[in-house]
Please model this.
Amino acid sequence: MKTKIKYMLLLPLLAFMFSSCENDLLNLSNPSALTSDSYWKTKDDFNKALNSMYGALQLPAIAGSSIINDMQRSDEAGTETWYNTEFAQLKWSDANQYVIDRWSHAYIGIFRANQILNYIDKTTIFTEDEANLIKAQAKFLRAFEYFILSYTYGGAVIHDVMPQSTDDMQKPFENKDVVVAKMIIPDLEYAMSILPKKWANSSDLGRFTWGAANTLLGKTYLYQKDWTNAQKYLGYVIKEAEDNNLYSLVPNYMDNFTVDHEFNSESVLEVAFSDNFKPGTSGNNHDEKTSSEATSIASAFASITGAGGYNTVLPSYWIQELFVSADTVDRSNPINTGFKYSQRTFATIAVERGDGDYYKAPLVAYVDASGKTITSKANFSYGQGSKVKKWTSWDRKESEDASTNCRSGINFRVIRYADVLLMYAEACLELNDVNTAIKYIDKVRSRAGVVTLQSFIDNTGSFPRLDKSKFANALASYENVAPTKENVLTHLRMVERPLELAFEGQRWYDLVRWGIIQNTFTERLAEENNIRTILGVAAGTEAIPSTQPKIYPLYLNERVRPDFGEKLTNYNSTRDYLPVPSVEVQTNKLLNSNN
Model:
C-alpha cells in the first residue's frame, strides 16, 4: 500500500529574503504572489509544508538512485570498467556530482524543516499539542539529514534556524561529534518524546514515529561507540516490539522490497516512491500535479540484455559466494520449501542455476518442447557471476521500462526492524553480552531460513567462520571457531550485516565506523587474485581461457572482473569521508574543505 501522504516537493522558497531591488519598479508587489506575509497563515499551509519536507527524502542522493555510489565504494559491489568509476575506484573529487548532490539534497531537507520550525512558533492557529507534533516531525527530519551529513562528510555546517540573510549562510564546518551533540541528539530526543508509536489514520502512513526516533538515536550512539546508550535506545524499540507487537520481522524476507507489502510490520523508516507518473523522461522526476516521484535505482541493477538495465552495480564475487555458499540453508525450516538457496539469496541476487525466474525468464537457458531455446535475461557473461534483484521489478515485469529509464515505484526501506536487531546485537557484543547478541542475530537468521548460530553451537560447541571464502581460498570446509565476543563480532560484521542488508546503502558506512576498510580491501583483492589463479587467468590479464568450464559457486566465464585493485591502491583514511563540495567552499567564506 502506498503512503497516503501527498509529497509536495516545492514550496515558495522565499527567495526575496536574499535579494535586493535596484529600482522602484522592481519593488512593485504582485498581489497574487505567495510571500511570507500571505503564506503560513492556515493549517493547510503547514500541512503542505510538511508534505514538502517529507518529499525531500525522495531526492536521489538521500534515498534514491544516487546512493549506488555508496554501494560501489564498498566490498559488496563491483561495476563494469566502462562506467564512470570514480566511486568504484575511490577517485572522487570535490567537484563530483554525487559529492555535490549528497550535500545539497540534505540541506534542502534541513531548510524545509527550519522553515516549519521558524513559522510554527509565530502562529496561534494550532493547539500546543498540534504544534509540538509538527515540530517533532521537522526535528526528526533535520536530525536525519544531519546524520547523513555527519557520516558522509565527517561533519556539517550547522543551520539550526532558518537563514534570514546571506550573512546567515556564512558558517564554519563542524566535525561530526559537534553536530551529533548539538543537533542530532537533541532533535531526536525531542522527536522521541512527542511522536506517536503509530499514527491513528491510515492516511498518515509514512510519517515519522517514536520507533524511528528511538532507532536513529540508538544508531547514532552506535556510530559514536557509546555502546551503553546504543543498547538502551535500541532496546526500547525491541521491548515495545516484543511486548506490544510494535514491529516484527515479516515471514517472507522479499516482502521488504516489493510494492505489494510496503509499510509492513518490519518497516521503521520508509521513503515512498511511485511510478504512476511516466512522462517519458529520466528517473528521479518530481510530478507536482500528482505529488509522486519514481526512482531510477532499478536501472543500475537490471541486466543490460533483456531486462532493460545497465549493470552499473554488480554483486562482488565475495558477496555472491557469501550468499550462495555461506548462507547455510536450514532444510527443516519450511520457508525453504522448494528453494535451493536461502530466502535472502533469492530476494537479493540472481545467480546462474539459481532459484526461480528473473524478469519472467529462467535463470538457466533451456530448450522447450517445441524446440525453442528459452534464454535467461540475466546475461551471465563477461565475468558477471550474479545480478542484483533487490529494488528491481524482476518479480513483476518482463523487463524494466527502458523508455522511462527504469523508473521504479518500490518504496525504499531506510531502516528495517532486522537492522534494529543486528545493531542491538552489536551493542550487546561490545558490552560483552555474547549470549544476548547470538539470540538476536539468530532471530534474523531464522527468518532467512538459514541455520542459526545457536544450532551450530549446540551441536559442536562452535560455529563456522562463514566470511572466509571457500572457493577463493581453496578451502575444503569452513573453519570452526568458538563463540567468543571477537568471533561473533566478526560474524556480525562480515556475514550477518552484509547478507541481511546488502544493497541497502549501509555497507560503506559500516566499514568506515569499524575502521576496517584497508584490511577488508586487502582480503578482497587477495581473493580476486586467487580466483584468477584457480580459473587459469594469465598474470596481468583478465581473460579466462575458453576451455575453462564454469565452476560453482561463481560460474564465471570470459574474464575475472577487477573490482578491488584500484580500490586498495587509492584508499587512505581521507577516503573515509567525502570532501565538502567545491561550490560550497567558494560561496561560504568560513567553510574550509574537510580534506
Summary: Confidence is low (pLDDT under 50) at residues 1-32, 278-292.
